[in-house]
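Structure (tokenized):
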């Protein structure tokens, strides 16, 4: 049994449905949840110490935009 690339979409930043850079919207699509849920999880994660902002900026730069 083989899986096609269409069956397992990679992480991309969509052009529609984004608020800032599309990172949360892209992660929501990739993991099958709503963008609102992903954004809420990201905001909640900012309440604990860690490199969340650096990770967001890195994903903004490294994750390709939907083409």
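Design, position by position:
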């Amino acid at each position: 049994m083989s899986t096609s690339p269409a069956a397992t979409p990679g992480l991309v930043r969509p052009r529609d449905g984004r608020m800032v850079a599309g990172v949360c919207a892209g992660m929501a699509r990739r993991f099958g949840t709503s963008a609102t849920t992903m954004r809420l999880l990201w905001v909640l994660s900012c309440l604990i110490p860690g490199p969340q902002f650096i990770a967001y900026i890195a994903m903004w730069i490294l994750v390709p935009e939907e083409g």
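Reviewer-requested clarification: The first helix runs from residue 23 to 31. Helices lie at 23-31, 35-45, 52-62.
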